[in-house]
């Protein structure tokens, strides 16, 4: 079972920014972030819709869908592009589809970003994602992360983060 969206505009913005933060991490080499975005995009590209609106995954199209996702993620951006990277573009494609689906888990904590609910982002970003959003995505984003947080990151200097090693 799943719920339909009934959140505040800022909750949707936070979910969208969380996806962009994951895309930023992916562009910096975070394998886990790359895998998440590639899998979610492939699930959308290979999904069919029944008349009643539910989605089903067409496994015959999945390989091609994975390749399409990878092509978008790794292509160079035009100088006038609004995206910082192909990962950012892929995250926006995923977000536009999530916005059409408007589905979240029971309780409304996590926003579905794939058609099946196996991939979500929280409507309230984790402290680490808040940190990434406020430092790398939106300068005026409100972030209440402590300097030295419980997951062991030193938040003073963004350059200190070993992005490849982070888990999201
Ligand atoms: Zn999924």
Characteristics:
globular; binds zinc ion; 168 residues; two-stranded antiparallel ribbon; single chain; mainly alpha; 10% strand
C-alpha-based Rg, rounded: 16 Å
Structural class designation: mainly alpha
Q: Order of helices and strands, N to C?
A: EHHEEHHEEEH
* Major sheet strand order: 1-4
Total beta strand runs: 6
Shape: globular
Number of helices: 5
Which consecutive residue ranges, at least 5 long each, have pLDDT under 50? none
- Note the beta-strand portion: 5-15%
The largest β sheet comes out as: 2 strands, antiparallel
Oligomer: single chain
| Chain-averaged pLDDT | 87
Ligands in the model, by name, code or SMILES, are: zinc ion
Helix content: 40-55%
The N- and C-terminal alpha carbons lie at a distance of: 25 Å
Q: In the residues, how many domains can be counted?
A: 1
Helix and strand topology:
Elements: E1 3-4, H1 9-27, H2 31-45, E2 47-49, E3 55-57, H3 62-74, H4 86-101, E4 103-104, E5 110-112, E6 120-122, H5 127-137
Antiparallel strand pairs: 1-4, 2-3, 5-6
Helix pairs in contact: 1-2, 1-4, 1-5, 2-3, 2-4, 3-4
The structure holds zinc ion.
Task: Write a structural description.
It is a single chain. The chain is mainly alpha-helical and 168 residues long. It has five helices and six strands, in the order βααββααβββα. The strands form three sheets. It has a two-stranded antiparallel ribbon. Strands 2-3 form a two-stranded antiparallel sheet. A two-stranded antiparallel sheet has the order 5-6. Strand 5 (110-112) and strand 6 (120-122) form a beta hairpin. Helix 1 crosses helix 2, helix 1 (9-27) packs antiparallel against helix 4 and helix 3 (62-74) packs across helix 4. The site of zinc ion (ZN) has 6 residues, from helix 2. Residues 40, 43, 114, 116, 118-119 line the site of zinc ion.
């Amino acid at each position: 079972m799943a719920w339909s969206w009934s959140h505040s505009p800022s909750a949707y913005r936070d979910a969208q920014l969380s996806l962009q933060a994951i895309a930023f991490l992916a562009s910096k080499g975070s394998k886990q972030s790359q895998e998440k975005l590639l899998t979610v995009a492939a699930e959308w590209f290979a999904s069919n819709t029944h008349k009643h609106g539910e989605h089903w995954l067409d496994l015959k199209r999945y390989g091609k869908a994975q390749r399409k996702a990878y092509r978008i993620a790794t292509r160079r951006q035009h100088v006038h592009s609004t995206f910082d990277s192909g990962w950012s573009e892929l995250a926006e494609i995923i977000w536009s589809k999530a916005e059409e689906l408007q589905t979240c888990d029971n309780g409304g904590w996590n926003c579905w970003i794939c058609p099946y609910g196996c991939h979500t982002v929280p409507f309230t970003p984790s402290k680490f994602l808040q940190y990434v959003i406020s430092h790398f995505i939106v300068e005026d984003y409100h972030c209440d992360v402590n300097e030295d947080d419980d997951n062991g990151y030193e938040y003073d200097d963004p350059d200190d983060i070993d992005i490849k090693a982070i888990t999201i």
